[in-house]
Amino acid sequence: MGTGMLADQVIVISGVGPGLGRKLALQCAEQGARLVLGARSGDFIASVAEEIVRNGEQAHAVPTDVSKAADCDHLITESVARFGRIDGLVNSAFRFETSRFEEADLGRWREAMDVACFGSLKLAQAALPHLKASRGSIVNVSTIGSRIGTEGSGGYNLSKAALNMATRQLARELGPDGIRVNGALMGWMAGEPLKQGFAARAAARGISPDVLERELMDTIPLRRIPTDDECAGAVIFLLSGLASACTGVLLDVNGGMFMAG
């Protein structure tokens, strides 16, 4: 038997990328979980799985586009074939569409919805028989942008806002089966994606990235930008037995930048 908050659980994570997704996968493995990683970038998730295996844990990578129903079914089938069960599902896939509403191609906004919301729903539906058997849990990764909106990110924010309501709808319907469904709403996260974003924005304004970072930190009560490691910890909490009485929760993970009333 393994040790840790997720000892011997089988966790499926979609949308594993170089920021939060990778850190979450590594932390889940450290907490004793056996992992199945899904994302469109097959080479990247294979490298993350290899990193986990080198650390003495278990992981399997399955290239997956969650906007395709067949891929969702395949990810779940492969997970059960590999490890025999599913205890937790983390829906982290998204499509980031940057456009202001006035100029937006709404078809691309719809594509963002197909990934973040309907892709998550399809994965949950495919995993449902296995989650019923394990009385497992689902964690949907969302964003502070679904709370307050951010300029030029409407397609992404709307898709995650829909996912928030899906979280509560599924929590209501699946609770009698012992399945918990919660959401973690991430704010800004210190990591490589944010660093690259700062560099691009700073160059456009002709200022130092440090100035942008300070401007952002001044809007956060903790006066620092949470790390992707910290944000991953919130997801692990919701997956774990420590959150056994929590379902339908939308947990804000943003250093206090937004506080739900």
Automatic annotation (TrEMBL):
Cross-referenced InterPro entries: KR_dom, NAD(P)-bd_dom_sf, SDR_fam
Please give the start and end residues of each transmembrane region: none
Can you tell which superkingdom this protein's organism belongs to?
Answer: Bacteria
Q: Which residues form the Ketoreductase domain?
A: 9-188
**Signal sequence bounds:** none
Hey, which family's this protein in? Belongs to the short-chain dehydrogenases/reductases (SDR) family.
The protein, known as: Putative oxidoreductase
